[in-house]
Amino acid sequence: MEQYEPDRLFPAHPAAVRRGPRSARAFPTRRSLLRSGAGGVLAAGGLGTLSACGIPPAGSTRGGVPAEDHSAKEKRLVFSNWTEYMDVDDSGKRHPTLEAFTRRTGIEVAYTEDINDNNEFFGKIKPQLAAGQDTGRDLIVLTDWLAARLIRLGWVQKLDPANLPHAFANLSPQFREPDWDPGRAYSYPWQGISTVIAYNRKALDGVEVTSVSDLLDDARLKGRVGLLTEMRDTVGMTLLDMGKDPGRFTGDDYDAAIARLQRAVDKGQIRRFTGNDYTSDLSKGDLAACLAWAGDVVQLKADNPDVGFLVPDSGYITSSDNLLVPARARHKTNAERLIDYYYEPRAAAELAAYINYVCPVDGVKEELAKIDADAADNPLILPDKAMQARSHAFRSLSAAEETACETKFAKLTGA
Amino acid sequence: MTTTLTEAPPPLSPTAPERTPPRRRGRLTPYWLLLPGILWLVLFFLLPMVYQASTSVQTGSLEQGYEVTWHFATYWDALSAYAPQFLRSVVYAAAATVLCLLLGYPLAYLIAFRAGRWRNLIMVLVIAPFFTSFLIRTLAWKTILADGGPLVGALNTLHVLDVTGWLGWTAGDRVLATPLAVVCGLTYNFLPFMVLPLYTSLERIDPRLHEASGDLYARPSTTFRKVTFPLSMPGVVSGTLLTFIPATGDYVNADLLGSTDTRMVGNVIQTQFLRVLDYPTAAALSFILMAAILLMVTVYIRRSGTEDLV
User: Fold this and answer.
1) Which domains does chain A show, CATH number per domain?
2) Does A12 touch chain B (CB under 8 A)?
3) What are phi and psi of A115, to 5 degrees?
4) Do B272 and A410 touch (CB under 8 A)?
5) CB neighbourhood size of A252 (10 A)
6) Residue B256's CB: how many other CB atoms inside 10 A?
7) Residues of A whose CB is below 8 A from B147
8) What CATH number should be reported for the domain holding residue B97?
9) Mean pLDDT across the stretch B58-73?
10) CA distances from A2 to A14, A16, A173, B228, B288 (A)
11) How many domains does chain B have?
């Protein structure tokens, strides 16, 4: 409370602050709030209590938390991942690659699939990380923009390259130098994600779709087009369609893309902005065409032959989901060993054969061909040169840019 | 109450034996009984409210931290930026409440007076949807209302969607991703909250009042208008409140069944909180919503002139 400016306060406020909790820390511990409650502050000096509730700067924990690594003593690891993002055996309960890791290293992995949405998960772990506490997780998987935010906030631990020989050697060049983590000091990709256009042939009814422009403009698709709630995917694909590079666009380019999307929304062209739930809409034919994630499309195609995908000539957006060790995690070395394990071609191939996203590991083709020859030839799983050449990453945004961009995008989606 | 308990009543007559008032030790009992509830409220209602109230007058960013700067302009900014979504929430919730009443009253009437031995079965059927998750039930509506589904096909054949389209409730030849779908979803999800209080109210009415009304030559419609309906008012009021209040803040139906032009204030709060990370605006919106609901509910209860709510 030291920084308040007296002239901007109501007369009652300084008095209330004096009556209120004197704790120098602005962040209320439960005890301090209880104490202030007991002091009658809740009733008499509500203002004081209110002003005690600030949130400290997030970066304040940066570097200040030398995490203690218990890996040597405790042969275990808590790994939080997205749902259906790990191979399972026929019983549906066991994860063969994880079990092989445990057999080899003796490290027990507590594997949970408790990540459903980047934003929700961030909301969940933010209070602990902001307070400099252990989240109880040693390894988490987050999409690159959120990984970038966590790195920026100083909420993840730097990885030790000495423990990551395979990862260092085998990481595919496409993923080597993201502008938010050059040289991969904090993160390694779990899987890559390609954003493409998916369609339902039956629902299209002969309408030909080749580009994002067709999605936004073709009147025959009115009300049957889906876009993604992930701002970087939807705006990125639109920028590419407008001939701009999502890796180096300006604020004006962004505004132009939003205006272009807004016109489509106003016309009633767009049915919905969706997360993963576009899959059922597309399968049923409620959506004729939409922006989609290639890994989903591979699986949808297998279930419904009407579903197909295309990569626009203007290119497509690639992002990645990344393995990170949160600040204060107790088993960093164990986590690094697991990261390194999944960069061995054998484990990477088994994983790629099962989950169908872009494999970020080089030299997997032979191993994958032994398991599933079709998958090894699928450019959505192992991108060939031509495919890689058309891939673009959305550039990282500063905190202020991110807020501005998300605000504009939120307006576009109806708030 | 406690003071009257503790003060000994004046002796009725000099001869009456003097005795201590009963249960003197129990003077604190009401407070002990209240304690768990009060603690629960303080911990899970009051503290979060204080925290959110504080958030709503903070400024800052995730990097710089948030500080209480008594920036009350957030409230005005939020209200002016999202007035359409507020209005929409109220209109959708009101429409859903009226639909719930129109559907729920006959149903509750049937259960209370006409169901006979089927009464318990029908009650179970009313409550049964609660056995599955809210989300699953709403997702089921996406299948029921699918563009190529039989229901939408029938509505198109009957040209019903031309009428609703002209009214602006639907767009083109579909129901999903339109206001109509959202209102239907709200109506469906909150119907039990209407039926149960109505049933409780109706079931309490003494059947002899109906007989008396008939004896006085009232037609059944007059009996309903003059006897049954006025006596069921507490159920109507609490049913409409239980439907309207949660429906105003709902965001699941608008999210799953709606489109960009059906977003409600709940969606805005969710987006601001999780996506844009503008915590002050999200908190301010929550408080504006609470204040608006409180105001509307107060006026409504005053107007309806009901003292007890079931």
Assistant:
1) 6-52 (no CATH), 76-186+320-343 (3.40.190.10), 193-312+398-412 (3.40.190.10)
2) no
3) -110, 120
4) yes
5) 9
6) 20
7) 224, 284-286
8) 1.10.3720.10
9) 88
10) 11, 14, 49, 64, 30
11) 1
* Shortest Cα–Cα distance, A76 to chain B (Å): 32
Whether A268 sits inside 8 A of B54 (CB atoms) is no
Residue B173's pLDDT is what?
A: 86
Residue A121, CB half-sphere, CA atoms under 13 Å: how many?
20
Contacts of B76 (CB under 8 A, 6+ apart): none
**B147 vs A119: CB contact, 8 Å cut-off?**
no
- For residue B19, count other CB atoms closer than 10 A to its CB: 9
Note whether residue B76 is domain-resident.
no
Give the distance from CA A95 to its chain's centroid. 23
Please name which of B181, B175, B141, B142 lies closest in space to residue B156, comparing C-alpha atoms: B175
Q: Does B67 touch chain A (CB under 8 A)?
A: yes
Contact status of A247 with chain B (Cβ, < 8 Å): no
Is position B176 within any domain? yes
pLDDT lower than 50: segments of chain A: 1-45, 60-64
Structural tokens at position A289: 């065409």
With CA atoms as reference, report the closest residue to A184 among A200, A201, A169, A199. A169
Q: B214-267 pLDDT, tens per residue? A: 999 999 999 999 999 999 999 999 999 999 999 999 999 999 999 999 999 999
Distance CA A189, CA A321 (A): 6
B50 contacts A414? CB cut-off 8 A = no
**Residue among A9, A54, A285 minimizing CB distance to B65:** A54
- Which range scores top for mean pLDDT: A225-229, A399-403, B27-31, B114-118? A225-229
User: What is the C-alpha to C-alpha distance for residues A238 and A42, in angstroms, rounded to an integer?
Assistant: 51
Residues A259/A271, Cβ–Cβ less than 8 Å = no
Mutate to test the interface with A, among B138, B277, B278 (most CBs of A within 10 A): B277
Please spell the DSSP secondary structure of A166-220, one letter per residue. Answer: HHHHHB-GGGT--TTSTT-SS-EEEEEEEEEEEEEHHHHTT----SHHHHHH-GG
User: By the CB < 8 Å criterion, does A37 face chain B?
Assistant: yes
Q: Which two tokens stand for residue B101?
A: 């009443």
Q: Select the residue of B55, B82, B172 nearest A415 (Cβ to Cβ).
A: B82
* Contact residues for A94 (Cβ-Cβ < 8 A; gap 6+): A88
Interface of A with B in 198-227 (CB under 8 A): 222-224
ipTM over 0.90: no
Residues of B in contact with A9 (CB under 8 A): 70
In a domain, B75, yes or no: no
- Tens of pLDDT, residues A190-211: 999 999 999 999 999 999 999 9
Could B63 and A152 be called an inter-chain contact, meaning their C-beta atoms sit closer than 8 Å? yes
Q: Residue B283: which domain range?
A: 84-304
**Alpha-carbon distances, residue A245 vs A110, A242, A251, A253 (angstroms):** 41, 9, 12, 9
Sole residue written with tokens 């000539």: A313
Of B55, B57, B276, the CB nearest to A406: B276
DSSP summary character for residue B118: G
- Tokens 């009456």 belong to B16
Q: Residues, chain B, total?
A: 310
Kindly state whether residue B78 falls inside one of the protein's structural domains.
Answer: no
Q: Which residue has the tokens 């960009």?
A: B260
How would you classify residue B13: left for phi > 0, otherwise alpha for psi between -120 and 50, otherwise beta? beta
A57–chain B Cβ distance below 8 A for any pair: yes
Reduced DSSP (H G I as helix, E B as strand, rest coil) percent helix, strand, coil of chain B, to 5: 75, 5, 20
How many angstroms separate the CA of residue B106 from the nearest CA in chain A?
35
